[in-house]
Structure formats: structure tokens, C-alpha cells
Amino acid sequence: xxxxxxKEIFTPPPKGWAIGAFNxxxxxxxxxxxxxxxxxxxxxxxxxxESAYKYAGGGYISxxxxxxxxxxxxxxxLQLDHGKDFNLILEAMRHGFxxxxxxxxxxxxxxxxxxxxxVVENARKFGISVEGELGRVGxxxxxxxxxxxxxxxxxxxxxxxxxEETGIDLLAPAxxxxxxxYRGEPKIDFDRLAEIRSKVNVPLVLHGGSDLSxxxxxxxxxxxxxxxxxxxxxxxxxxxxxxxxxxxxxxxFEPRKVFAAARAKGQALVxxxxxxxxxxxxxx
Length: 284
What we know:
48% of the residues lie in helices and 18% in strands. By secondary structure, the protein is α/β, with parallel strands linked by helices.
């Protein structure tokens, strides 16, 4: 089927389960995600960070995802993740991305609102969805690096104003999660999440969804998180697949065999996440 928007994929919003959003970089990543979602009949969101967008090329990666979507019956959306470059965001819209995330979390509150609203205004011309971020998630992934001293949690009352004044379709609040791998036990502010959920009327997004226990995943879903981002875990699965294959067959030179091993490992990881998020067999 054709790609759909993130807003469409959350209509109606899931209750008691969440949709996985997986960051990809190449053909094998896309196949791993789409094949896993197809096998488990789960809606899925494919995400591309700014650095991955520049690596693969917006036209290349969007064409790969569009082709993959045509070969499955599960709903798929394509989102630019953590967009900060306004011109690159517009370019992604022109390349057929069905959703964009504008990350103005590094800006003062009013400036974040202004930038996010500007992206929403342009996105409406393309008929696509927008995710905004309020508060700042710490950690490192791709070209995103935020020290703990510069990370801060989302104010629930500001979240109400942010959603109303920007018109975003999804909100990514900062509640204590981190990009990348965690150092020690994650300190998630579940009470803050519950308060934000009670005050805003758009789906909530959990950034830093890798390296979390099943208990934490289950609780954030119970408290209203509808979209969970996974980047680091998929990276490790893909590269571990390559390392394990070459450890067994160090003389192998056929790229297709090496990349197929990575794809199989990535697909298994995505299937495991889909089951954790309880989105399997949710395609109507």
C-alpha cells in the first residue's frame, strides 16, 4: 500500500499498545523493519535522522521506503527524525516523507514554538504530519548529543501551550529517557508523563526507546505513550549480524551474504520490539 501520514497511522489512537518507529540508514534496514512488521501484521513508522538522510540521500531513501510499502499491506509512515535544518525539512517534504519531526528543543520556549509552528504551516501544504519536541532528551545517537547538564524535563503546563500554539500532531516530551545506551538504571518520571497525558490531546512519543526494560516499556504504554522510537538497538543488531557472520566466515567477500545476515538479525530485533509494544496483529 502507499505510504500514509503518522497522523493517519494514529487514527484512532492506540490504547494499551504503541507503534514502533525505527531509524534506518539503508536498504537492509528498511527491509528488516518492513518484513518484521508484515510478518506480525503491525503498523510501523520508518524514521530517518538528518545524518542518515544526508548519508543515503533523501531521494534514495524515500524511494526505497515507498517501494517497500507497495509490497506490504501493513500501514507504513516515513518520518524525518530530529529535523533541525529548516531547508532540509522542506526537502524531505518534497521527497515524499509523510511526516517530519522538528526539533527545536535547544531553543528558548517561545522560539521553539515559532519554529515548530512554521514547520507545521509548511507541512500542511504537503498534507503531512508534524512531531514536535518540548523539553530536551539527553544522550547521544547519530549526530545528536545532549549532555545531562543541558537536558531538561517537560513542563506539563508548557506542553499544553506548545501543542495549542504550534498545531503539532504528536508531542515528544522529555521524561528522563536518553538517546543511545543507558549508564545505570533509567530514571523515568512516570508522574510527569501521566500529567502530560492528562493535559494534552495529541499522541505522545517516547524518544530514547532503546535499552529499556520490558517493565518500563509496559508502564509508559499504560500511561499513554503511543509511539516509541528505536534507533540504537537496531544499529547494534545490524552490526552484530555482520560481525557474527564474518567471525564464522572470515573469507567471505560476497556483500549480499554479509548484508543478509545483518538484515536477519535486524528483523528479529524489530519483531521482538513489536511484541513488546503489543502492536502485533493490529492491522485492521
